[in-house]
Amino acid sequence: MKLKYCIALIGLLLKFFSFSQETNRYYFEMKNDYIKRGKYKSFSFKLYTSNSNTVIFGNDNSYILKLATARIYLNRQSDTARGSYIDFAGGATTDGNLFITIDKNYNKKFTDDEIYFVNMDTVYQTRADFINAWPIIRIDSLKVYDSSNVLHIVSINILPCIFPDPGFNYFKNSTQVLSSKLTFELQLYTLNYMHTSFNFNNNVYELNIDLYPLQYPSHQFLRVDKLLLHNVTLYQKIGGKDSVIYLKPFSSLENDIRNGTKFLLGDTSFRVAKISIDSSYIEIKGEPFSKQSHYNNKKTDNLINFSGFDLNSKKKVKISTSRKMYTLLFFTGSWCIPCHEVQPLVKAMYQKNKDDVQLVSILVERSLKEAQLYFSKSKTNWPAFYENNLHHNSNDISRKLSVTIFPTFILLNKKGQIIYRGTSSSAIEDIRNLFVSP
């Protein structure tokens, strides 16, 4: 009888083990509700003051108070590569409204192009309300060169907005427009994105692939040039809310697939086995994960001394793990909601154990401006390094340690060796127990 139970138990374990390692295929669907859901993505461009003497009059005889222009290139990989461009002009009128115009016929002037006005008499309660007030503008017969310099004539939809520079704020009414002494910033918003969802270890995840705001409306054109793809965002459903735990360029995901990079989620992991944009699917494979073997296989001697751009001192700072018994690396970002929620726990743990541990935050952001803003709001009293997640740098600590999920906590000993790695708020309790263990 005991043998029978043992055989049944072994069978059950084998079934679970095979299930955890099976490859599952999930299909994407195209969506366009980012702004409605408040998850919009944008690309920012400085609007430069124009030397043109052009005067634009509105229907009520108002005229331009501030005029600025910007030229946005499409699929241009370098200064010598062929690329299409779109000229924008925008600014404020004397009655406090905002406007935008686009050189649709490419004759390098705006006098014969349609002008789009945004009424600022309305008080916009949220940033999303302000974005929704702007029109979606269609451009036909746009000449676009792909990465092979093959010309395509396409039509695209654009959602442009004008913000005060820096664009973290938005104009709420005409009074703010007239009183603003700042230069303007043009932001172009993602209209469409590819979406799928999947379950892993009883957790629900959503994966979105954002498309450039100047993207082709037809899905088939995605085959032409993968440069049109931008961010990949992985959300985890936590308490009924979508929390960002992964935000990287599409090229980074492709590198992760080639390298077999694992997405570590506590004591479990999965990896992306394959992604097909043409066939609209992604293949995800669950894999067993041993912390001990993972750490033993890592070459961590180079982390005895490491350096980064410190947002506190605004210069490159060198950190030595030999200074204290422990060094805790906290990988975070302004876009990561779970990182915000765990920040008070990190601060409390550090205050209690700062005689034995040095804490370093690694802010992985799309720009230095975003990192500085988040750092100023978080009011941390420990070093915070900035790393750019849009550009590959082999010297980045996040890349050396294959950090893919946020927040991630990595604890080093005095020799620079990893003695713990964890994700989410559960890692805080694990680290506390390590501090008090004999």
What does this structure look like?
With 438 residues, the protein is α+β, with helices and mostly antiparallel strands. The chain has three domains: 23-36 and 192-287, no CATH class; 42-189, no CATH class; 291-436, Glutaredoxin (3-Layer(aba) Sandwich), CATH 3.40.30. It is built from ten helices and 26 strands. The chain has helices spanning 2-21, 34-37, 127-132, 174-179, 250-259, 291-297, 337-353, 368-378, 397-400, 426-436, and strands at residues 23-27, 29-31, 42-46, 48-49, 64-74, 84-93, 98-102, 115-118, 137-145, 151-158, 160-164, 184-189, 193-200, 203-211, 229-238, 241-249, 263-265, 268-276, 281-287, 305-310, 315-320, 326-332, 357-365, 384-388, 408-412, 418-423. The strands form six sheets. Strands 21-20-24-23-22-25-26 form a seven-stranded mixed β-sheet. A five-stranded antiparallel β-sheet has the order 2-13-14-15-16. The protein has a five-stranded antiparallel β-sheet with strand order 4-5-6-7-8, with no helix packed on it. Strand 13 (193-200) and strand 14 form a beta hairpin.
